[in-house]
């Protein structure tokens, strides 16, 4: 991302780390900042309209579409991307469940599905199948792995409840 006249530095938390990015243009989206300036490839550019879910991140723990959020609009806030949700060998329960259920085909929707599901289960670890379906209804998967995705989220819910009951 190139700096524009009058661009000011942006301060925010990304995946638990304080970031200060100089020269962020006022028109920059959070998605472009994450991908282009910070090199985070979890959130994907899908539609650019906030309708497909591929760009979903957490802003202060709430699932949000980063392609339509002005980067300066989240100054000082905590942003979590797929890379910050869990790490290889220590996956978040939703990531582990997606792997176990083989819920990805092409993988393009995976970021949005995982991030949306993680936000749901953080709020409601008892989420019913109907609630899960409703929550994920705004995330598009063109490969048709919807049944595997639903299975993965249900597995994650079971894991998260078991971890809570320990």
From TrEMBL:
The keyword Thylakoid does not apply. The keyword Metal-binding applies. CDD domains: fer2. One of its GO terms (molecular function) is 2 iron, 2 sulfur cluster binding. It comes from the Bacteria. InterPro entries: 2Fe-2S-bd, 2Fe-2S-bd_dom_sf, 2Fe-2S_ferredoxin-like_sf, 2Fe-2S_ferredoxin-type, 2Fe2S_fd_BS, Beta-grasp_dom_sf, Diverse_Oxidoreductases. Keywords: 2Fe-2S, Iron, Iron-sulfur, Metal-binding, Oxidoreductase. Residues 8-85 form the 2Fe-2S ferredoxin-type domain. Its EC number is 1.17.2.1. Transmembrane segments: none annotated. It holds the Pfam family Fer2. PANTHER family: BLR6046 PROTEIN (PTHR44379:SF6), OXIDOREDUCTASE WITH IRON-SULFUR SUBUNIT (PTHR44379). This is Nicotinate dehydrogenase subunit A. It comes from Variovorax paradoxus.
């Amino acid at each position: 991302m190139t700096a524009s006249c009058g661009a000011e530095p942006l301060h925010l938390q990304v995946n638990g780390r304080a970031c200060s990015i100089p020269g962020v243009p006022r028109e920059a989206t959070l998605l472009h900042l994450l991908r282009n300036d910070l090199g985070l490839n979890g959130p994907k550019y899908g539609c650019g309209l906030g309708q497909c879910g591929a760009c979903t991140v957490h802003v202060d723990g709430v699932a949000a579409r980063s392609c339509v959020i002005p980067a300066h609009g989240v100054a000082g806030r905590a942003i979590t991307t797929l890379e910050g949700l869990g790490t290889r060998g220590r996956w978040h329960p939703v990531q582990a469940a997606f792997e176990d259920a083989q819920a990805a085909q092409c993988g393009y929707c995976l970021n949005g599905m995982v991030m949306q599901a993680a936000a749901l289960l953080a709020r409601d670890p008892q989420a019913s199948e109907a609630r899960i379906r409703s929550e994920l209804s705004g995330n598009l998967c063109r490969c048709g792995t919807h049944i595997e995705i639903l299975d993965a989220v249900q597995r994650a819910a079971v894991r998260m409840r078991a971890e809570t009951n320990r």
